[in-house]
């Protein structure tokens, strides 16, 4: 991305500098001369168990690095971070839900970006409450035992309007990303507000789990300034920046599981132990949040956890790799090993080795369009492996599996290796339909016991060969004993689907492993009882491997009957229950009202700002002889903007040319004396920086070319511009009208402008724009729509086309049981080519806009619990529909759809959604 790019030193050059000496991460990531290697200095930190789960434990912690990995209190840590933007999930209760899922799916850290524009509606004004409560988010992450990697910007990119910079910054003459004092004054104020919160949650102080701070510092002078800022604010955790010895890479997004494997295995093969999944949870670009690069409400639909908080097909390899890095320490100290080649050149092989344990890892990559079966030299043996088309495999040799047993080689990937009491457990994963072949070096002849019918084995010359055909959503278990040790090895072999129901968990009394449910959220040992909480969707077996002395199991607070199984586990007698799907109501009782009163010639605009400025801080030039019409210059930074011009001396006017500038999917509508002149949309691909410019040449209907009446009243030109978003890299480019030209007359023109009302104190500055209904609270709960006409969005499709804005409102109630977590969406069922724009408001919160007629336009809006009242409470749904004059003013049928449900979930508090006061 634009910042925190990989360090300029190559891996070999950095290794030569670092030697085997541990380097402390100094503030700003620089390496002091005292940290450089000395002759006869200490050796590297050996491979060993990772540090325990992070928590605000009140103890001071030391964070350092060497050329292999991060070091936390002298233990190696492979960071497996997942990115989550709290501002894209406007329900603080659900932060815990997603963070618990990330931890369960193998992440040990969450990467967080903060959008300045979410917190600052005006210079010197900052809000860290409600859905912007950073302190609450950091506390929740710590309670979920996740490290935090924090990126406060000021510019964060992230496909956010202006890259996260506040709209008001366009008007103060500050040049972002420079050492301009005007900019630094505002940026410092923002960072100081953030740092005051971050300082209370630093892992190094034992008061939280903030582990690393990412810096927006492309230039050395900026970095020096940042160091001073952080030091003054009490931030002492290590800082990652463009020249950090340990690079924070921004991997591209991946579309599916195979692409995710290729990307992350390749990074592992290059020696990276600082991983980030972008995005672990995508969420919603609600309101006017998205940049032109992400105009759709759904952000990253291919994320591992989707917008409805459900696992996607891409999750399995990330889940497996996360737990591998956590539970197989060999992977925290790997170095490049001599190259080997597969017999078939279409399979490319990279090999790594751990100098402490002798374990080796192999990344096999097939970029061809066909599955390839080839032999690969691994562990002194030619091993036949099949790599699917455009996919990759991660294999290993030499892993210690306990009691002298070692993995000679395997054709499937290791996922975890852990010990529970006198039981050593090793799990391996592959794709359904393949044959898994595991070979173990056993010093003594083993006594295998088949626990599931798929497993077969042979023992020959000190090697145990295990063969397992992988079936869909099937786990195969094999118990291995011998007479020379009292420790038992349990082999688990699973396909991708079954691996997603394997849940290792670390407790203060030791590790446990749970199999069966769709999610394990938490586990606690309480005397002889293990207390588990989690989610189920279907009926599931529950199997638990726990430390000695555990005899009873509870699930979500209820005791479940269990007994000792053949796999030395606690097995429930009856399966855990699934969840019945909640019944959703039909959306009826709609009421509707048309607006755009602003286009009428007698509309009272006396309170509107006069658009008469002559200079601007915008990068867009002000046309000669014309006033500044740019919306930002008058304080209107988000949403729709209205213009009204009184044209004196307009008799004979034949046409109007209106130049305008927008983000993606902008448009312009114009009226003269209340008569529509037409709708215009910018075409082409924009300027490449997020701005589309166009000129609407609008001819007047013949009836309007001669002014009615001889009273000398000026004509009134009304223009609505859907200005949409600022570009991430050109945030000062104009939005709204830029100039006007008239043919057939040369009228005297006086402009006024109106946009969004004062920012909503709860929902924030990006929630609403300048439509009449928005300015007057038509989107809010409690608005009295009793005088509106009955009328549904579906019925409107049979009406005459209309240019302008039509509103629809209804209320509905849900009654979801407290023990059920239901994700609900709003579906617009109209044909995708219907050329209307629909803004969706739920309880006053702007869930985003649907752009009809656009390829791939979204038709389902996820309604997050908390904003959505699911417990027998009323919800207000409002739709603001823009139609272009050629299309009926309605989107077609609208309905609720159940996107997913589970028995379990987290307690959800209603998100404050203040309504319009009556009277």
Automatic annotation (TrEMBL):
Molecular function (GO) terms for this protein are: beta-galactosidase activity
Please name the GO terms of the biological process aspect recorded for this protein, alphabetically. carbohydrate metabolic process
Acetylation found in the keyword field: no
Task: Quote the catalytic activity from the record.
Answer: Hydrolysis of terminal non-reducing beta-D-galactose residues in beta-D-galactosides
Q: Which Gene3D superfamilies match?
A: Beta-galactosidase, domain 2, Beta-galactosidase, domain 3, Galactose-binding domain-like, Glycosidases
Q: Where is the Beta-galactosidase domain?
A: 328-502
Write the Enzyme Commission number(s) for this entry.
3.2.1.23
Where do the record's region annotations for Disordered lie?
34-60
Xref: InterPro entries: Betagal_dom2, Betagal_dom2_sf, BetaGal_dom3, BetaGal_dom3_sf, BetaGal_jelly_roll_dom, Galactose-bd-like_sf, GH, Gly_Hdrlase_35_cat
- Family per similarity comment: Belongs to the glycosyl hydrolase 35 family.
Q: What is the protein name stated in its UniProt record?
A: beta-galactosidase
């Amino acid at each position: 991305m634009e910042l925190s790019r990989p360090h300029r030193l190559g891996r070999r050059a950095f290794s030569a500098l670092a030697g085997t000496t541990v380097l402390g991460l100094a503030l700003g990531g620089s390496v002091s001369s005292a940290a450089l290697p000395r002759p006869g200095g200490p050796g590297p930190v050996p491979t060993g168990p990772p540090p325990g789960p992070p928590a605000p434990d009140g103890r001071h912690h030391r964070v350092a690095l060497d050329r292999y990995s991060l070091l936390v209190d002298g233990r190696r840590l492979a960071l497996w971070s997942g990115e989550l933007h709290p501002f894209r999930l406007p329900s603080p209760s659900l932060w815990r839900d997603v963070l618990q899922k990330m931890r369960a799916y193998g992440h040990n850290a969450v990467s967080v970006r903060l959008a300045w524009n979410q917190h600052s509606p005006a210079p010197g004004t900052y809000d860290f409450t409600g859905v912007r409560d950073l302190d609450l988010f950091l506390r929740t992450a710590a309670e979920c035992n996740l490290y935090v990697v924090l990126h406060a910007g000021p510019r964060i990119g992230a496909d956010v309007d202006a890259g996260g910079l506040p709209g008001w910054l366009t008007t103060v003459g500050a040049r972002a990303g420079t050492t301009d004092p005007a900019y630094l004054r505002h940026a410092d104020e923002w960072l100081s507000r953030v740092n005051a919160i971050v300082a209370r949650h630093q892992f190094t102080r034992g008061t939280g789990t903030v582990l690393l701070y990412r810096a927006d510092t492309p230039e050395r002078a900026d970095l020096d300034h940042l160091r001073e800022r952080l030091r003054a604010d009490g931030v002492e955790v290590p800082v990652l920046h463009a020249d950090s010895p340990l690079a924070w890479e921004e991997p591209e997004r991946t579309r599916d599981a195979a692409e995710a494997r290729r990307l992350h295995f390749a990074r592992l093969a290059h020696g990276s132990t600082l991983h980030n999944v972008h995005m672990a949870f995508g969420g919603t670009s609600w309101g006017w949040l998205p940049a032109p690069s992400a105009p759709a409400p759904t952000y990253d639909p291919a994320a591992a956890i989707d917008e409805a908080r459900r696992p996607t097909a891409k999750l399995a390899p990330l889940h497996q790799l996360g737990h591998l890095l956590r539970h197989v320490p060999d992977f925290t100290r790997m170095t490049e090993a001599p190259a080997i080649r597969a017999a078939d050149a279409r399979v490319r092989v990279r090999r790594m080795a751990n100098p402490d344990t002798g374990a080796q890892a192999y990344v096999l990559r097939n970029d061809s369009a066909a599955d390839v079966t080839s032999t690969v030299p691994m562990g002194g043996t030619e091993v036949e492996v099949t790599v699917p088309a455009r996919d990759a495999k991660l294999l290993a040799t030499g892993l210690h599996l306990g009691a002298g047993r070692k993995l000679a080689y395997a054709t499937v990937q290791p996922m975890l290796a852990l010990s529970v009491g006198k039981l050593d457990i090793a799990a391996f994963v592959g794709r359904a339909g393949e044959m898994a072949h595991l070979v173990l070096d056993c010093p003594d002849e083993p006594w295998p016991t088949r626990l599931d019918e798929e497993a077969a084995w042979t023992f020959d010359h000190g090697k145990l060969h295990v063969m397992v055909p992988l079936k869909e959503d099937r786990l195969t278990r094999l118990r291995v004993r011998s007479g020379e040790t009292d420790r038992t090895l349990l082999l688990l072999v699973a396909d991708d689907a079954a691996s997603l129901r394997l849940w290792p968990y670390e407790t203060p009394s030791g590790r446990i492993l749970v199999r069966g449910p769709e999610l394990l959220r938490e586990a606690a040992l309480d005397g002889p009882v293990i207390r588990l909480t989690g989610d189920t969707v279907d009926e599931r077996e529950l199997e638990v491997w726990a430390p000695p002395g555990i005899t009873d199991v509870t699930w979500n607070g209820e005791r479940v009957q269990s007994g000792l199984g053949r796999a030395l586990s606690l097995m429930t007698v009856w399966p855990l229950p699934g969840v019945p799907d909640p019944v959703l109501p039909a959306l009826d009782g709609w009421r509707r009202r048309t607006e755009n009163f602003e286009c009428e010639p007698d509309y009272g605009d006396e309170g509107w700002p006069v658009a008469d400025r002559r200079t601007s801080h915008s990068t867009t030039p002000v046309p000669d002889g014309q006033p500044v019409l740019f919306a930002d210059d008058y304080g209107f930074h988000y949403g729709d903007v209205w213009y009204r011009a009184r044209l004196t001396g307009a008799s004979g006017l034949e046409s109007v040319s209106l130049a305008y500038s927008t983000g993606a999917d902008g448009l312009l509508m114009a009226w003269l004396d209340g008569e529509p002149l037409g709708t215009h949309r910018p075409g082409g691909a924009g300027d490449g920086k997020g701005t589309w410019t166009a000129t609407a040449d609008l001819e007047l209907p013949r009836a309007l070319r001669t002014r009615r009446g001889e009273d000398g009243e000026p004509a009134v030109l009304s223009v609505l511009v859907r200005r949409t978003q600022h570009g991430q890299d050109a945030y000062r480019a104009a939005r709204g009208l830029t100039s006007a030209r008239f043919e057939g007359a040369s009228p005297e023109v006086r402009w006024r402008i109106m946009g969004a009302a004062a920012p909503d104190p709860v929902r924030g500055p990006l929630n609403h724009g300048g439509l009449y209904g928005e300015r007057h609270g038509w989107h809010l709960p409690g608005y009295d729509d009793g005088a509106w006409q009955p009328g549904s969005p579906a019925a409107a499709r049979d009406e005459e086309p209309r240019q302008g804005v039509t509103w629809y409102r209804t209320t509905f109630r849900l009654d979801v049981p407290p023990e059920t977590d239901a994700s609900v969406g709003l579906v617009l069922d109209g044909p995708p080519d219907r050329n209307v724009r629909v803004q969706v408001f739920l309880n006053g919160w702007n869930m985003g806009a649907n752009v009809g007629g656009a390829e791939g336009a979204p038709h389902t809006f996820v309604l997050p619990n908390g904003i959505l009242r699911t417990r027998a409470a009323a919800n207000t749904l409002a739709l603001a529909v823009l139609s272009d004059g050629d299309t009926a003013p309605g989107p077609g049928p609208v309905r609720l759809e159940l996107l997913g449900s589970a028995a379990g979930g987290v307690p959800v508090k209603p998100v404050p959604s203040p309504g319009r006061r009556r009277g």
